[in-house]
């Protein structure tokens, strides 16, 4: 990937799909990258909404669940994705940031033996992470992102950081705490930040598994095991979060063909790596 004239190209000659959203402002110099989920039924429905002048909302990019990318606003132009927001010395983050929307239903509600989105679609346990949002006290259910989405987001973010010299990557919930919950605990934001910034103080704790270890959708044996597990013995992982004896981890090597497998494991079966 590369950037030419503030548009994203998949290679030297092929731009990603581009639709010109009318919901935009003037020129800006981006300093941050902001990650969102759409809380919508599909990437196409979200794109259609951002193309509607009445929406008064947009983003620079929408990434579908298959990893497909659509650009709606050039990267040097204000998109209306952040709303009332603040981060360190900056306020009104629309004027200072690039916004990426990931096609994802967001927070889900229990429905029978599964889960249901606000727009009425049902989800099975293997599509859901049960976890506490870091700004909340109760466990909620969150629609999982796909490996394709996360891989594409990492690739796009790397290109954006290299081209614009961005200072940080944050969630909508970081810049609008209490008002917004996206991208929520199902998105590995800390791992993405660590990879992009590469500063030693930003590195997450790393451990390895001491046995073949089930990986679950939430912190407890009552939560479903995830497809792709268990984690083999000596699998290196990064610790994303803690809940009692449970640890939310991201596998640092592919597990059964799945890259960046993420979920909850019992901390008793982790140890510090040697060396």
UniProtKB/TrEMBL annotation:
InterPro entries: Amidase/PGRP_sf, Amidase_domain, NAMLAA_amidase_2. SMART domains: Ami_2. GO terms for biological process: cell wall organization; peptidoglycan catabolic process; peptidoglycan turnover. Residues 19-184 form the N-acetylmuramoyl-L-alanine amidase domain. It is an enzyme of class 3 (hydrolase). GO terms for molecular function: N-acetylmuramoyl-L-alanine amidase activity. It comes from the Bacteria. Its EC number is 3.5.1.28. Gene3D superfamilies: Peptidoglycan recognition protein-like, SH3 Domains. It catalyses: Hydrolyzes the link between N-acetylmuramoyl residues and L-amino acid residues in certain cell-wall glycopeptides. CDD domains: PGRP. The keyword NAD does not apply. Keywords: Cell wall biogenesis/degradation, Hydrolase. It holds the Pfam family Amidase_2. This is N-acetylmuramoyl-L-alanine amidase. The lineage of its organism: Bacteria, Pseudomonadati, Pseudomonadota, Gammaproteobacteria, Chromatiales.
């Amino acid at each position: 990937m590369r950037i030419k004239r503030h548009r994203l190209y998949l290679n030297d000659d092929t731009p990603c799909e581009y639709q010109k959203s009318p919901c935009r402002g003037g020129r800006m110099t981006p300093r941050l990258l902001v990650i969102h989920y759409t809380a919508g039924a599909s990437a196409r429905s979200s794109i259609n909404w951002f193309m509607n002048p009445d929406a008064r909302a947009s983003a620079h990019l929408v990434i579908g669940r298959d990893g497909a990318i659509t650009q709606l606003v050039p990267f040097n132009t204000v998109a209306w994705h952040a709303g009332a927001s603040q981060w360190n010395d900056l306020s009104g983050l629309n004027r200072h940031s690039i916004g990426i929307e990931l096609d994802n239903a967001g927070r889900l509600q229990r429905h029978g033996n599964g889960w249901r989105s606000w727009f009425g679609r049902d989800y099975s346990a293997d599509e859901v992470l049960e976890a506490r949002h870091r700004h909340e006290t109760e466990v909620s259910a969150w629609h999982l992102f796909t490996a394709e989405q996360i891989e594409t987001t990492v690739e796009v973010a790397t290109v954006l950081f290299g081209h614009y010299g961005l200072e940080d990557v944050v969630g909508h919930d970081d810049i609008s705490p209490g008002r917004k919950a996206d991208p929520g605990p199902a998105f590995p934001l800390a791992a993405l930040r660590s990879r992009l910034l590469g500063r030693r103080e930003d590195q997450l704790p790393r451990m390895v598994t001491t046995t073949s270890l089930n990986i679950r959708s939430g912190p407890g044996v009552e939560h479903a095991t995830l497809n792709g597990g268990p984690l083999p013995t000596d699998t290196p992982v990064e610790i994303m979060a803690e809940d009692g004896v449970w640890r939310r981890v991201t596998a640092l090597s592919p597990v059964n063909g799945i890259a960046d497998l993420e979920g909850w494991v019992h901390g008793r079966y982790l140890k510090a790596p040697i060396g």
